[in-house]
Fold this sequence. Notes:
Number of domains: 1
Distance between the termini: 49 Å
Bound molecules: protoporphyrin IX containing FE
CATH superfamily: Globins
Radius of gyration: 14 Å
Low-confidence stretches: none
Order of helices and strands: HHHHHHH
Mean pLDDT: 97
Number of strands: 0
Oligomer: single chain
CATH architecture: Orthogonal Bundle
Amino acid sequence: ENKTLPFEAIGEGTLHRLVDAFYRRVGMHPDLAPIFPDDLTETARKQKQFLTQYLGGPPLYTNEHGHPMLRARHLPFEITPVRATAWLACMAEAMDEVGLEGPVREDFYARLYLTAQHMINTPDDET
Length: 127
Ligand code: HEM
């Protein structure tokens, strides 16, 4: 069987445009901007590396930063259900902006949805 990797289906150029479109929204979002650095350049660079390997491409994130341990790396930040919803909304809008559509988008988004739920570490009423 010869299955195309999601990374190949999406393409590096579209993935990088997606991440840039995503962090432009994060940086302006009232629920998200306060917990992110003002300069999102390095955050976007790491996210491009991470999503490349998440989608089956080369392990760029792990090569530079080690095991992702994503939930542990998010523990310093209060990730509430409201922030998870905001994160996913920014991602859906970024997918619209770069024209990512069809089954490859639906599968990618479904995985991000589950990963985002896994990052939640704080109830809404504690922020
Ligand atoms: C880093 C928030 C979900 C992947 C971060 C940072 C914040 C954050 C504040 C630190 C940024 C920095 O200091 O540069 C959130 C919130 C989420 C969420 C509010 C809502 C659920 C996700 C998901 C993924 C993800 C679903 C992956 C699919 C990453 C990666 C980093 C990161 C790869 C960089 C880690 C590093 O420093 O090496 N996130 N995140 N995040 N996030 Fe998230």
